[in-house]
Sequence to fold (421 residues):
Amino acid sequence: MYGSTVWYLKNGLKVVLLPTDYQKDQILFNLRKDGGESLISTADLNSFEGNIYGLFEQNSGISKFPSTTLQKMLAGKNISASSYINSLNHGISGSSVVKDLETAFQLAYLEYVDPRFDQSEYDKGIKTLEAILPNYMAQPNYRLSKELNSVLYGDNPRVITISPEVMEKANLATIEKNYRALFNDAAGAVLVIVGDFTLPAIQPLVEKYFGSLPKGKKALKWVDTNEDILPGNRTNDFAVDMQTPMTTVVDVFSAPIKWSQDKNAALSAAQYILNMRYVTSLREDEGGTYGASVAAQMSRQPKEEALIQIYYNCRPSSADKLREIAMKDLNNLATEGPTAEEFDMAQKNLLKNIPESKINNSYWLRTLMSYETYGVESVDAYENAVNSLTAESVKAIVAEVLAADNHAELVMRPGNTAEAE
Fold:
């Protein structure tokens, strides 16, 4: 696929390789397995809260080498290799210049077979959090994050916001137990390598390090843990004390929609159009906000669905008027569709981005990983979908999302403030 070469190593690992000359002296790789956080019990998830686990990873060394020693050993080398645990998958990702590739592969191998779980390195992250958490929790953005999780997911115990209670439940033993369960063998794993290499030169390194991973018997599979956005319409309108008076509005629309490349392209066009509209209606005409940010996307796992999220900060006195305008612009796109000028600009922008993306190794790494996940060709299919876009298809996808009648709105207003508006 896409000119790549596929090897199967003796331990069962599938390796997908794509030599390129797009970016000289750059090699990217990603070894991934199904599973991720979906295989971690709810009781253990506190230990994998993003701040806690992220700082542990940041402060950890590898094998018998403390982080301080490892940093000295890698001085002068242009490489990275680190583990990740996403919601539905986990693995090792990295990058390297050509001359340091073997060192990057060595690190990746050790992350898999000889990870380091040192209590002092874990405690270093906890102490950092203990020092900054009180101040962070006093910030409006902390309350915003917590309330947004609540309005979207209710009291789902698998959706976690950092707090002293979460930190008390987290511990290194839980991290080690789950990490070793996830990274125990190569069964079901896929390694994708893209960049400045030749197949003869890289083959012995791939076989030496990735071919030495334990074989395993049964591939892990992710499970749907039902971390779903709640259905229906909900508004959480609350006040928070802050230094400078400002109102934040977040609107999230969700809908169960079967994924297709045509609908995916139409939703991307809708995102571009809405961002253009809000620059005019919210920022330039009303002057009430620095600008709104719209994110619209479709997902295929764990469930097929579409999301449209609108986010903006504004003057408190303008908030309710801007909320009305934002909804009017969105509903208009669903009922009337884009203007000819809006549609033309959106389609041309999407087409312009395609060749620009193709000269990046990261694009081909993502594309090959996507093919390994879904088994569907996406490069030509996406370009064909963008070329086939119509104003009607953009209108239709927005209307389909809104028709599901799932709208969560968050409005954070200023309580007591140190400054006047």
